[in-house]
Amino acid sequence: VTAIDSTPYERSSPGLPPAPALAIDQFARLVELHFDFIWRLLRRLGVPAGDADDAAQEIFLIASRKLDAIKDGSERSFLFGTALRIAAKAGEQRRRQNALDKIAGEEEPTRPAAPDELLELRRARELLDEVLEAMPLDLRVVFVLFELEELTMAEIATMLGVPNGTAASRLRRARQEFETRVERVKARSDTRSVK
Amino acid sequence: MKDPDRLVHRASDELVLSMLHAARNEAPHSAAKQRTIMAFAAGASVLGISGSAAAIAGGAGAANAGGGAAVASASAGVAVGAGSATGTIGSAVLAGSGATSSVTGTTALLVAKWLSIGAVSGVLTAGTANELARPSPTPVVETIAPTSARETPRLVGAAAPPIAHKPAELEARRLTLPSEPAKVARFESAPPARADDSRALAREVASIDGAREALRTKDPDRALAELSRYERAFPSGSLAPEALYLQLEALLQRKDRVAARSVAEKLLRAHPQSPQAARARAVLARSNP
To answer: By CB count within 10 A, which of B66, B90, B118, B248 is most buried?
Structure first.
């Protein structure tokens, strides 16, 4: 996870100097090109849908302050690294909040009813996220980038700053982990259906 | 070295396939992108960080009448128009002659990004029109037709043919003005856009974002205080439905169900067609004896 740790990152705050001038058209293009990718990445890293918009926005605003320091063609890598950090931070906050909620006995927020098809989609995503969350982060990231975002192994290796062989090895292990976790989910649901 | 086949192409397990497809098909709402661009634009405007170039202006449409706004700067401008529940939006951006963006200098293509806020949805919604225009000696005005036929803003001083627009669909078109680059393109049906409008809109967004942030950190009191300030500062704010929705959530978070019910009713009365109304209905249904 070295590449993740070394990614330049600075949280936006009013105390920082104003963003470097960046034309709106450039920023809009950046958003058009990478927003979906970053948003989905956040989701697969455990950021709830309700928070993913704001988290993605923060990432792009951070990038807008740094773009002059980012090499051409490395924008996605920068956004990716920032997304990992934001997702990790959000995860910590969420875990703390969940623990507090449990202590306080807070009820789960209700979600509006959805048609069956949507419920199935939602359920499938929840299962996937459960499986992914149980995987080590370095494996999860490679799995998401390759299997869901369809990046090539070479792109993934570059993005993570690791040799191609390392990326390939992580993918192999990620797939094994994934299959094992899916089997557990299936076994659990089989047990429930027997009961 | 050849990449291995992806699971989604070779897996036969139904559960695995459904999980992979569900994740691959998930995408953010387009409004999220618009809001991000607008947050950047508003920041640029408020902070003045892009100098004279990224001049941003917004025009809020009056209630029940589609608002239109247009702005032009010496180099580039983005107009943000806010409509109302029944009205819709007309916005225009005018890129001045021989314009250069402060950052892109003389090089770039100008991508004008249209942002509009529909009070119907309470969030940033709808139409964008991307237009690529190289700096040219002739100013280019681009307009987005309103979604409603009720009001069709016309450019003053421009022999513009009627805009053939489809209901509920934003269309972009461009007009070429024969005259000098205008400082401000004006719609007859709306007051001229002013920098004040853009600042007000940016403040609205910031205020709402502040309340949302407070809610996310489970601080309903701070959220309610922020929303109260919003209400005082923007009695006819463009983001009123969103403000009411956040107020409702804050009260629920504070477990003040009586007040929450009252706000839900107010939200339903004022914005029955908004997406937030569904939440209000759900709250009312749950609190019914």
So the answer is: B90
Q: Are B270 and B244 in contact (CB under 8 A)?
A: yes
Q: Which residues in chain B are closer than 8 Å to A125, comparing Cβ atoms?
A: 19, 22-23, 26
Asked if B109 lies within 8 A of A29 by C-beta distance, the reply is no
Residues in B touching A39 (Cβ below 8 Å): 27-28, 32
Q: Structure pTM? A: 0.48
Confidence of residue A182 (pLDDT cuts 50, 70, 90): very high
| CA distance linking residue B20 with residue B133, whole number of Å | 40
Measure the CA angle with vertex A22, ends B99 and B204; round to 5°. 100
Asked if the C-beta of B18 comes within 8 angstroms of chain A's C-beta atoms, the answer is yes
Nearest to B114, CA basis, from B31, B217, B14? B31
Task: Report, as an integer, the average pLDDT of B192-199.
Answer: 54
Residue of B nearest to A31 (CA): B33
Cα(B66)–Cα(B190) distance, rounded to whole angstroms? 8
Chain B residues inside the 8 Å CB shell of A147:
6-8, 20
> Looking at chain B from residue 167 to 186, which residues have their Cβ under 8 Å from any Cβ of chain A?
none
Over 80: is that where the pLDDT of A169 sits? yes
**Per-residue H/E/C for B209-255:** HHHHHHHHCCCHHHHHHHHHHHHHHCCCCCCHHHHHHHHHHHHHHCC
Residues 30-69 of B with CB under 8 A from A: 32-33, 35-37, 39-41, 43-44, 47, 49-51, 53-54, 56
**Token duo for residue B137:** 């000696």
Q: Which residue has the higher pLDDT, B13 or B275?
A: B13
Q: Does the pLDDT at position A74 exceed 70? A: yes
pLDDT at B196 over 80: no
Q: How far apart are CA A30 and CA A24, in angstroms?
A: 10
Q: Do B49 and A60 touch (CB under 8 A)?
A: no
**Chain A interface test: which of B12, B14, B36, B102 (most A C-beta within 10 Å):** B36
pLDDT one-digit tens code per residue, B38-58: 888 776 544 443 332 333 333
A26 CB near a chain B CB, below 8 Å? yes
Q: Higher pLDDT residue, A4 or A113? A: A113
Asked if B15 lies within 8 A of A185 by C-beta distance, the reply is yes
- Categorize the per-residue pLDDT at B215 as very low, low, confident or very high, splitting at 50, 70 and 90: confident
